[in-house]
Amino acid sequence: MFFLGHMVWAYVWAAVFAGKPREKIFVPAVLMLGVLADVDLFLRRIGVQHHTLVHSPIFWLLIFTPFFIMYRQRALPYFAAVVQHFLFGDFLVGSVMVLWPFSSLLLGLNVSMSSLLDVIIETVGLALAAIVSYHSGDLRFILSVDIHNMLMMLPLMALLSSMMWFSVDWAIIPLLGNIWSRKLVTAIVFEHIALAIVLSLSTFQGLRALAKIQLARYT
Ligand SMILES: [Zn+2]
Fold first, then answer.
1. What's the CA gap between 60 and 79, in Å, rounded?
2. Residue segments in the chain with a per-residue pLDDT below the cut of 70
3. Ligand 1 center to 25 CA (angstroms)
4. Could you tell me the pTM of the whole model?
5. Where are the domains of the chain?
6. What is the 177 CA–ligand 1 centroid distance (Å)?
7. Could you tell me if residue 145 is left (phi over 0), alpha (psi between -120 and 50 degrees) or otherwise beta?
8. What spacing in Å lies between the alpha carbon of 216 and ligand 1's midpoint?
């Protein structure tokens, strides 16, 4: 799954676990937590393989224990944002060591990236995230002039760097050769652009809020 899918599904799953009446969820944090498990892409040098322990629920349960003790069920949407990455996204599109440390078996449905099914899953996630954020008021908040929106810069940078990584690394994507795949690639690229625009607007609004605060200080 692309960072796009991991991020939008992180938001959707976080909203599912936010409880009723719905706790406010901090969207930039949820989007970043949605791709956090892929930090293991940078840990190969110290011997941690991609899709292994950092893609297992037990590992994150240990990390989240202090947060559950401090914040109780309010930590749940953020935990859901992290674990959906591999229990949902990478499990469908790929395979992961979900049973670590009890077994190093790689489990998953191994749907190919940029295949029809992958693009459908990512598109549905984007559509659901749009609907949920619209109805919950989150969309209005992330597009408002608020200093917190500056932090949207982080998921924006993560999304843009993943787009650059894939644009030079297309060769790993199967099915690219046939025409259907090209249309699917076009669709997924447009979805990346749409999400990048929303995240850029939000970051811009955060920067505007900062500028306002600074201006008020000197006038
Ligand atoms: Zn992953």
1. 8
2. 166-182
3. 22
4. 0.90
5. 3-218
6. 25
7. beta
8. 43
